[in-house]
Amino acid sequence: MTIAAEFIGVSQVFGDFTAVDSIDLAITEGKLTTLLGPSGCGKTTSLRMLAGYSTPSSGEIRIGGTDMTRTAPEKRGLGMVFQSYALFPHLSVAENVAYGLKLRKVPKAQRDTTVMETLELVGLAHLAASKPKKLSGGQQQRVALARAIAIRPKLLLLDEPLSNLDARLRVQMRAEIRRIQSETGLTVVLVTHDQDEALEMSDDMVLMRAGRIMQQGSPQQVFPHPANRFVADFLGYENFLTAADGSLIAVRPEHLDVSAAAAAGSSDGLALTGTVTDVAYRGVDLLVTADAVDASGATVRLRSDSRSNATASIAIGDTVSLSAAAGRLVPIPA
Amino acid sequence: MKTRRPVAGALAVAGYIIMIVPILFVVATAFTAGETLRFPPQGLSLRWFEAALSYDPFIGALVSSLQLAVLATVIALLVGIPATLAIYRGKIPGKGLVEGLFLSPLIVPELVVGLALYQQLMIGLKLDNFETLLIGHTVLMLPYAVRVTGASLALADPALEEAARGLGASPLRAFFTVTLPMLRPGIFSAGLLSFVTSFNNVPLSLLLQSRDFRTLPVTMLDYVQQSYDPMVAAMATLILAGTVVIAIIAERTVGFARIFGGINR
């Protein structure tokens, strides 16, 4: 596995705010790496330092093995897609895509061919002559992608590229970006705050919090084995319970079962008795919140099939038993 | 959606009447065949237009006014646009102060500016009156240059320049291929407003006039004080026609909505 880009002890400090706190990160060639985390975690700052739009306070950024920490963005040869798309409004779609090629002095005939090929790749060849303003959000997004890809960048950087699209289109574009990535073989770095997006799209995901990397690995590695409570929480493990030995255990809401009967005390799994404090009907499922009737008094949330007879009659104030199979209990390292 | 608001509607109509009717009187009297500036005009003729166009002080002053307005506009834009970029995009301390300085000519009475320029430049530095007027008019225009181009710069997404840089453009290249084209409507309207400001200016031009260099409005003012014939109405009508032509060109090329939209949006 070749390393396409690398952060070595990189920090970024704005006044008395440390946006990125001495991170070490390797980005693998030909893979899609996502930087995932809540707002203010340093993911966009990291991407902007990689692109050259901001210079780290300390540390080194290597691209293709070369130190580029202080190299101007125009000399890095990377393709960036901005959250706002940043299409040049005075240029047509084709001229937008040709912009980087013109600067590289690619002869006109070859330029035109590349522009059309790239627009075909994103499915917009028929709109080559349009102005960006006339395009829908999804189409503008594709033009921005095409413009960044046309220059055959060493890395394709995507800053929250899907956050301005409506929910349905967003899901379509995830697959679309994956397809483009596999067809072009580009190394992609994508910034997102959406864990579903990261899980679905990443080869490698990097979870960040307060300027530090919390965990890095493939979705298959990270999702079942969150490295700490923050990662588990961010990935949707809503229930955190303290085991008899004092260690922390996380359970996903869809992995808890609820029933009106007394707890069937299975020896290896989880069994709790609780009082229902809230029931929310959500179509496909019911979201039940209950407080455990034990010393911990832990609040648990679970999702249950809304059409199941066992749960249909659950109401606020009911005493219920909550259980989870042993395989569903995820230990969280302290 | 059309709302019926009779009071506002009536006021708007009254406003138009107050603004337009006096102009119509002037235009009508310009076409008179008679000898005096009187309404209704006596007969119809173009004789006063001929007279105005062959009256050397008017034509000389028109050329002077145009020279001054064009030159001052160019200088105001050349100073104002970089200043705007520095204020809105640059990392300079005391941005507000710099902006305030550039906008201050809007507040300071023109007579004060004129008197200061007269004392310091014409008397003090012994500049001739054209140079002094050029400086004075340029100063008067700077608020427009900074405000109007600033408004269109504020609307432009800063990521556009970053995108250009990322695609391989040097900062200068990014400015000329992306930022400047984005600012074009703003610059056009700033230029238009500046030109009109200079061309119509009386207080400063009156204070800084000389026998050799006098602007058209000042010359017309002088003329009206001495004689009361319709030639001045004919000249005013010609200026009005010129202004309308400029307005039409502006509407056709950029559009008022885009020119003035920069200020209102």
Describe the structure.
The complex is a heterodimer of chains A (334) and B (265). Chain A is of the alpha+beta class and 334 residues long. Chain A folds into 2 domains: 3-231, P-loop containing nucleotide triphosphate hydrolases (Rossmann fold, 3-Layer(aba) Sandwich), CATH 3.40.50.300; 239-332, OB fold (Dihydrolipoamide Acetyltransferase, E2P) (Beta Barrel), CATH 2.40.50.140. Helices cover 26% and strands 32% of the residues of chain A. Chain A is built from 9 helices and 18 strands. Chain A has a 6-stranded mixed β-sheet with strand order 6-7-8-3-9-10, sandwiched between helices. In chain A, β9 and β10 form a beta hairpin. Chain A starts with a strand and ends with a strand. Chain B is mainly α. Chain B has a single domain (57-227, 240-264), classed as MetI-like fold. Chain B has 12 helices and no strands. Chain B has helices at 6-30, 47-53, 56-88, 95-103, 110-124, 129-155, 159-166, 171-200, 203-207, 216-226, 231-253, 256-264. In chain B, α1 crosses α11 (231-253) and α6 crosses α8. Chain B is globular and about 70 Å long. Chain B starts with 5 loop residues before the first helix and ends with a helix. The model of chain B has no long low-confidence stretch (mean pLDDT 82). The A-B interface holds A 51-53, 72-74, 76-80, 82-84, 86-90, 99-100, 103-104, 147-148, 151 and B 157, 159-160, 162-170, 173, 177-178, 181-182, 184.
